[in-house]
Amino acid sequence: MRLSRFHLATIKEVPADAEIASHKLMLRAGMLRKLAAGIYTWSPLGLRVLRKVEAVVREEMNRAGAIELLMPSVQPKELWDETGRWEKFGGQLLKIRDRKDAWYCYGPTHEEVITDFARTELKSYKQLPVNFYQIQTKFRDEIRPRFGVMRAREFLMKDAYSFHIDAASLDAEYRNMYDAYAPIFTRLGLAFRAVQADAGAIGGNASHEFQVLADSGEDAIAYSTESDYAANIEMAEALAPSAQRPAPSASLERVATPTQKTIDDVSAFLGVDPKQCIKTIVVRGREGLVALCVRGDHEVNEVKAAKLDELPGESALADEAAILAATGARPGSIGPVGLPESVPVIVDRSAAVLADFVCGGNQDGTHYRGANWDRDARVTRVADIRKIVEGDPSPDGRGTLKIARGIEVGHVFQLGQKYAEAMGASVLDDAGKAVVMQMGCYGIGVSRIVAAAIEQNNDAAGILWPEPMAPWKVAICPIAAHQNAAVREESERLHAELSAAGVDVLLDDRGLRPGPMFADMELIGIPHRVVISERGLAAGTFEYRKRSEPENRALSRAELLDALK
Ligand code: ATP
Ligand code: MG
Predict the structure, then answer these.
(1) Of all protein residues, whose CA lies closest to atom 29 belonging to ligand 1?
(2) Given a cut of 50, is residue 433 above it in pLDDT?
(3) Cα(62) to centroid(ligand 2), Å
(4) What's the distance, CA 357 to chain centroid?
(5) Is any atom of ligand 1 closer than 6 Å to the C-beta of 166?
(6) What is the dotted CATH code of the domain comprising 14-236+403-454?
(7) Which ligand 1 atom minimizes the distance to the CA of 152?
(8) I need a surface site. Which of 164, 186, 306, 371 has the fewest CB within 10 A?
């Protein structure tokens, strides 16, 4: 490719509204142009990278036996009514109306459409298992689109959906997809971790996320120092402490804490370690209120709490008036001692082994000291309801947990029969009986991967593409070609030769001075650069530099071709 015939539009200034490296660099390299919030045009340069990611994903999906199809991005409301998601999906669903006033949505995901396809196409167990995938544009009306294509409203996803006669077959395909994902991210040069994820509102059984490790990541993941245990922080189990609860030794005493509401204030005021305090959060239960008690230095994990039987499937703070009516005090002075019988008290495992602790007095401006479970405060149930912290023991019993930030680039999920049941997708089994199919779904954020790769691979000069996703593998930079026919000819010759050998090569024939030319090639991250100059030609060498290495090397023609092919 000759750069003079391409459209490259790099910019020097750092864009004001870009916060993280990948977003800044994608804009500076001219890969993206913003059209509206979270909606971008991929420039010719950006598209070259996007297509390379797509190609790797497609190749590995095909290798794993999945079959490509393409579903529409506009989907009729009726399908979404069948699963109840027209209402339940929430604000992310972009609803649109056609000229006949019929409602549609722009697809944020394709479970409904694929299940509709499956229920008409699949009739017999003999057609199973089958895994259909597509690489297609999605739209989600994200509350806070940000970081460019990292969290966009319109983005490219690979989504696959598998269909099975039974759970064992689903398990096997889930494993197959899990195993296919690692080579995809490895080939793309990403440092990633597969982590156990929350199955969330979708229900289902197993679920793993593939997280690219990066400080700018929006997700927090917990991983073991000693084993390959890793989980989304929401999911990571906090084990029960091995120590037994000591017997009470202090008597219960009410103390005035006139202005102290937070654990930090109370513990400083009373001279007690936050680890000896109980933090009580009151949330809305299925009926009435529920008290959640964690140790003062811990936080309630809302995802874990939402799964408690006492809660309605979500964890929402109760309002102050309801708390005051039930407990006689406001948040800041609530504790487990003397709560009405109607309020279940769910105690975290670490909080349950405390004795002689400090907790709210259920009377504004007071706390208790010397409080003890059972003797003074009722325990409805002990459960794991807190967020893990660094240093907690790993749930698999090996090592301790550390926390890192990650960017979710893939997600595999066992859906079970949820969609097939709701939409009546069944096949006949070998006895001629209708069986509702089992389903799995498997997503990859194709456009997000481009940004994630830059987060992991950049320096002061610009992007360092992992080779399989670089827009070109080699840049040829002729120096003062307009004054020198030999430089021109040699550049053309090398360009032709590498192109013929199937190497993705870019000839920078724009006639720029070396400084700006090199700056552009470094900014857009071309992995290999060859400089052709009068001086080099006289010495019979080419100046070669790898983008990831600081030094130039003078190579003979044979050495150069060897290095590049
Ligand atoms: P997130 O928690 O980041 O919102 P999600 O759980 O909603 O992701 P899935 O529904 O599993 O995502 O979608 C599959 C993949 O699509 C994700 O793993 C992610 O890589 C990508 N993806 C999801 N939302 C976006 C978005 N707004 N912009 C870019 N990529 C996205
Ligand atoms: Mg999302």
Answers:
(1) 151
(2) yes
(3) 26
(4) 39
(5) no
(6) 3.30.930.10
(7) 28
(8) 186
Return the CATH number of 253-383, one of 3.40.50.300, 3.40.50.410, 2.40.160.40, 3.90.960.10: 3.90.960.10
- Spatial separation of the C-alpha atoms in residues 428 and 435, rounded to whole Å: 6
pLDDT confidence bin for 206, thresholds 50/70/90:
confident
Element of type H or E holding 280:
strand 278-284
Q: Would you list the domain boundaries of the chain?
A: 14-236+403-454, 253-383, 472-564
Nearest protein CA to atom 28 of ligand 1, as residue: 151
Task: Locate the ligand 1 atom nearest the alpha carbon of residue 409 and give its number.
Answer: 20
Query: What is the average pLDDT across 170-185?
Result: 97
Q: How far apart are CA 88 and CA 86, in angstroms?
A: 6
The response to whether residue 450 sits with its C-beta less than 6 Å from ligand 1 reads no
The answer to whether the beta carbons of residues 245 and 436 sit under 8 Å apart is: no
Of 4, 80, 30, which is closest to residue 462 (Cα–Cα)?
30
DSSP character at residue 487: H
Mutate which of 149, 448, 450, 454 for ligand 1? The one with the most ligand atoms within 8 Å of its CB, which is: 448
Q: Is the CB of 151 under 6 A from ligand 1?
A: yes
**For the segment 263-285, what is each residue's pLDDT rounded down to a tens digit?**
999 999 999 999 999 999 999 99
CATH 3.10.129.10 fits 472-564, yes or no: no
> What is the 83 CA–ligand 2 centroid distance (Å)?
19
Closest to 167 measured CA to CA, from 412, 442, 444, 435: 435
The response to whether residue 155 sits with its C-beta less than 6 Å from ligand 1 reads yes
Q: Quick check: helix, strand or coil at residue 534?
A: helix
Ligand number with the minimum distance to the CA of 220: 1
Give backbone dihedrals phi and psi of 295, rounded to 5 degrees, phi first: -65, 150
Q: Which atom of ligand 1 is nearest to the CA of 151?
A: 28
Name the residue among 453, 424, 454, 452 with its Cα closest to residue 437. 424
Write out pLDDT tens, residues 531-548.
999 999 999 999 999 999
Residues 6+ apart with CB under 8 A from 43: 7, 9, 30, 31, 32, 33
pLDDT averaged over the chain?
Answer: 95
What local confidence, expressed as pLDDT, does residue 117 receive?
A: 98
Q: Each residue of 103-132: pLDDT tens digit?
A: 999 999 999 999 999 999 999 999 999 999
- Going from the Cα of 158 to the center of ligand 2, the distance in angstroms, rounded, reads 14
Per-residue confidence (pLDDT) for residue 197, from 0 to 100: 85
Could you check whether 14-236+403-454 and 472-564 share the same CATH topology?
no
If you average pLDDT over residues 511-526, what whole number do you get?
A: 97
